[in-house]
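Hi R.,

As promised on Friday, here is the backbone we talked about, encoded as structure tokens. Could you run it through your design pipeline when you get a chance and send me back a sequence?
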């Protein structure tokens, strides 16, 4: 198959780029650009790797919806039996609208408000992933006041060694997430003593775009040491939640496949006698990242003394990752043409910021009016999109075989100013 690296559901048909059974240039012509396009088969096959990894185990895959929270994307995962990892009251409302089972929703995040806790208790979510000792006290108060018992898991910080795994950003001492390793027992003892809380499990999440299995294995050891210590003090944990963070292929990256990684993790779990627990994972990027592309039109080519610029109609408000994290997205034309002269460009958007770039030093054969695909755009793009420069957010299409469904209209200026009021 003539498919693109990392994107098994995007391939060349002759000189034209297709996703599943749909020609991408035709989608751009009928819906305009910038346009996000997602492959349903790609999402389900990414999910299937996790499902294979959990065959024969008690497990819940909770899609970390901050990666892409569009309702139809949530629907695909809800229908496939997923739970959801949410980080705000807004995400809770979205996932309920998409038809999720509230009992499979877990609520992460360091700054949950009382109102968010109350709503989550009302709908009966599966678990609160508590991130601080102060949050435990507030959750207990909120649950007591409404005569409910809140299921809790405590997010522990496994403090995986940064020197051996320097790309891990959330599982280390000195960041805002989770409870320090040495405070774990005391925190669980406090949770067990609070009347409106029920200890359900333990969780960790060590970072994102992890391309090596070793830090997961290290973190597993640290977490299991804690589970052993907690249980020896009479605190039983029904579930162990390993968080998300598995990386994708943006630029030749080779993360372990989810099923291969979980085979290794289960060997450890079985060896230490924890293989029969209920497992949860919270994958975000690895379920949707390479299921999506962003289509954009070349507006202008601008030669320069030091650099040439390819100015496109997508910008940092649509694709924030390069500006935020100097992230790499591959960029390919929707049509391969032998005759177009190719040159080296910085691909940039129209936003009035020098930080508004999408790719640097890219060899491209492009003319004004040509269409390009920005790859690996399924995760942390649309969900982070903004209206900066009063640009409406892009439209979104979901491809399923040879059917393409518009799942989000392009945002109009009326949509943008709906809540605003002029002075009298
Ligand atoms: C963001 C996040 C995830 C998902 O991370 P990915 O790198 O997208 O898999 C999972 N759990 C928590 C608590 C998160 O904050």
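Update: got your reply. Pasting your designed sequence below so it's all in one thread:
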């Amino acid at each position: 198959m003539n498919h693109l690296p990392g994107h098994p559901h995007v391939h060349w048909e002759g000189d034209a780029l297709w996703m599943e059974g749909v020609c991408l240039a035709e989608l751009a012509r009928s819906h305009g650009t910038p346009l996000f396009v997602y492959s349903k088969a790609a999402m389900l096959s990414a999910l299937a790797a996790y499902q294979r990894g959990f065959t024969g185990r008690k497990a819940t895959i909770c899609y970390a919806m901050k990666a892409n929270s569009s309702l139809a994307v949530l629907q695909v995962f809800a229908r496939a039996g997923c739970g959801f990892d949410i980080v705000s009251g807004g995400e809770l409302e979205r996932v309920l609208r998409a038809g999720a089972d509230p009992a499979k929703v877990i609520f992460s995040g360091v700054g949950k408000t009382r109102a968010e806790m109350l709503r989550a208790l009302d709908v009966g979510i599966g678990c609160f992933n508590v991130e601080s000792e102060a949050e435990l006290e507030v959750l207990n108060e909120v649950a007591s006041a409404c005569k409910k018992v809140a299921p809790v898991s405590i997010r522990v910080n496994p403090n995986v060694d940064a020197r051996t795994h320097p790309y891990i950003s959330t599982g280390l001492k000195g960041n805002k997430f989770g409870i320090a390793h040495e405070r774990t027992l005391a925190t669980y003892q406090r949770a067990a003593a609070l009347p409106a809380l029920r200890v359900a499990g333990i969780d960790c999440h060590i970072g994102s775009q992890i391309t090596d299995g070793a830090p997961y294995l290290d973190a597993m050891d640290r977490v299991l040491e804690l589970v052993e210590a907690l249980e020896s003090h009479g605190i039983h944990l029904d579930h162990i939640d390993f968080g998300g963070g598995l990386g994708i292929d943006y630029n030749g990256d080779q993360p372990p496949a989810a099923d291969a990684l979980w085979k290794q993790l289960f060997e450890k779990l079985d060896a230490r006698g924890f293989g029969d627990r209920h497992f949860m994972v919270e994958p975000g990027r690895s379920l949707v990242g390479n299921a999506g592309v962003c289509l954009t039109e070349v507006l202008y080519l601008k030669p320069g003394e030091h650099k040439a610029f390819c100015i496109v109609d997508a910008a940092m408000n649509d694709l924030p990752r390069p500006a935020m994290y100097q992230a790499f997205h591959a960029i390919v034309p929707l049509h391969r043409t032998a005759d177009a002269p190719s040159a080296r460009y910085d691909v940039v958007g129209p936003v009035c910021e020098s930080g508004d770039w999408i790719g640097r030093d890219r060899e491209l054969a492009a003319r004004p009016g040509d269409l390009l695909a920005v790859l690996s755009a399924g995760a942390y793009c649309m969900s982070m999109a903004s209206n900066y420069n009063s640009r409406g957010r892009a439209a979104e299409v979901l491809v399923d075989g040879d059917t393409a469904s518009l799942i989000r209209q392009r945002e109009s200026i009326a949509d943008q100013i709906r809540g605003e009021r002029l002075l009298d």
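One thing I noticed while checking it: The chain has two domains: 2-39+289-417, 108-283.

Thanks again,
M.
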